Structures are given as C-alpha cells and as structure tokens.
Amino acid sequence: MALWIQILPGSSEPIYVQVAEQISKAIARGELASGDKLPAVRKLAAELVINPNTVARAYSRLEQAGLVTTKTGSGTYVSDPKLRRHDAADINILTDRMDTLITRGLNLGLEEQDIIAMFKGRLAKFVNKKAERRKND
Amino acid sequence: MALWIQILPGSSEPIYVQVAEQISKAIARGELASGDKLPAVRKLAAELVINPNTVARAYSRLEQAGLVTTKTGSGTYVSDPKLRRHDAADINILTDRMDTLITRGLNLGLEEQDIIAMFKGRLAKFVNKKAERRKND
DNA sequence: ACAATTGTATTAAGACTTTTAATACATTAT
DNA sequence: ATAATGTATTAAAAGTCTTAATACAATTGT
After folding, report:
1. What are A26-42's pLDDT values in tens digits?
2. A15-83 is classed CATH 3.40.718.10
3. B70: β partners
4. Which residues of A touch B24 (CB under 8 A)?
5. Given this model, what pLDDT does residue B132 score?
6. Which residue has the higher pLDDT, B96 or A4?
7. For chain B, what are the domain ranges?
8. Which H helix or E strand runs over A121?
9. Contact assessment for residue B69 and residue B63, using Cβ atoms and an 8 Å cutoff
C-alpha cells in the first residue's frame, strides 16, 4: 500500500487541508478502515516534501473531526466508525454545502435530473469501493 | 425587494466570496432573473458597511462565472441563462466538490439513502422557488 | 533501563491573501 | 453638464499559510 496523497502546487486549498481531505476520502471509501495506522507525521512529511508541522496540522484536523485518534508515542489511527457522532450543527454545515453545490450546478445550466444523476453516480463509486474491499478481506 | 445579503463576521470565507455566493444562490433560485439589475457597487458597499472594492471584487467574480454582465456607467445585470456555457473543466470541479460533500456525509455516519434524500430535498427547494416565482409573474 | 519513534508545542520569519482607504478615470444616464 | 455607474491603482494593516529549528512527553522495542 503505497502513498496516494498528492498535493497540487497550484491549488488555492492550503496543503494541510489537501492532506486531511484526501485522507478523509480514503476513509469514506473504505481504503482506510478502523484501526489502520496513518503514516508517521515525520515520515509523511518527508514523502510529500513538506514541513512536519503541516502534516501535524492535517492530522489534528482529522482528529477534531473524529476520524482518527492519536496516541503520542504510538501513532495516529483511524477511529471506529460506530463511535462517530454527528449533531445538528454538522447537518447544517452539510446542507449548506449542498446548497452551494446545487447553486453551481444550476447556474452551469444543468437540469435537476442531471445533477441528481451525477450525484448518485459519484456516491455509488464510494459505496462500490467499500463493497469491493469487504469482498477482498 | 429589500437586501437579502448578510455577511457573517465569524466566517472563514472572505467577504467577497460570501457576497458572490449569496447572489449566485439568488440567481439559482430565480429570485434574480435575467436582466435584473444588481445594486450599485457603492450602494451595496454602504448597506453592508464594507469597502466598495470588496463588492467590486464579488461582482467581478460573478462576471467571470458568466452569471452577470457589466456595463460601465449603467450597472451590473443578471445575464441570460441560455447563454451560460459549461465545459469539461466546470464539470470536473463540480464532481470534485460532490466527492468532498459525499466524503463528509459518509464520515458523519450517514447512510447512502439519507445522503441522497437530503440532496434531493435541498435541490427541490431550489426548483420549487423557481416555479413559485414563475407563477407570480 | 535505554534508545528510537511517536505526537505535540513554541517561536520566528517570509510569502501571500484579505480588507480598507483614498483617489482617479471612463462610460452611461438624466 | 452633472450625476451615477464600473474599473484601476497604490498603500497599509491584519490575518493565514508554510517553513524552520528546536524541545518536550509518551510509547515502543530491545
């Protein structure tokens, strides 16, 4: 299992956000499962040729989101999905982001059905990857 | 028709993004239709108690997205939806954002059906508002 | 016990972005 | 003409992002 994380130099997204986001996606796709260990802060920093502080910030962000738990001296591990909680605030943020996304789609001239079809298509890829992974375990 | 735009002081989003985003949503919902005139740069700046440059930057962003056209000396107007084009790059950005959104939802512990239902619900509100507006015209 | 590895914290500096401010200019409307 | 429009420029203040160089605390492996 090599390293999938790739930082885009031209992106307006801060590096620590890019790293956290890509790890989040790996978790959502099931490529990283509960208990899996993330690369050590210094090791990942060396591979990506960025500062260890930047990786630490990404990990801190993941921990705040409840996706990983860290044990100083041991490492950073993907947390148990069953323990992940969401409250009303989380849902509000999610629906706000949905509205932003829908705004973009409609203003690009896309039709309601097209947008839904696209969304379902993307979502299916996540779930399929998870199913494949369960099969191979 | 008073002013709907509200800037959140605590937000990490730049003010010019907040302004552009809210106008985009108004257009997507049909609250602003083709030909409608946006508030003058200086006027909106005065109402929001921000710098005119910041509003100008928001308008510039909307023009770059093809949502408005500006005529110096006259004003800024919502452009014709039929003229709005999208290319492959636009779709790529949209699907990337969808993936980010889906990642959030799944990692909050939401089920596939819940996420789709939420998304459809939000989208329906946009389309319904447009339908209502057509009725009242 | 010891050494290596882990995450964390601090301080500093440079680069970049955001916002305000103060003008000035060009075009359009009245 | 006069007023109102969008645009452009220059400057400064405040904040964010990233790197750098350390140092500390806790765990792991021997």
Report:
1. 999 999 999 999 999 99
2. no
3. B76
4. 103-104, 107
5. 77
6. B96
7. 15-83, 88-136
8. helix A112-136
9. yes
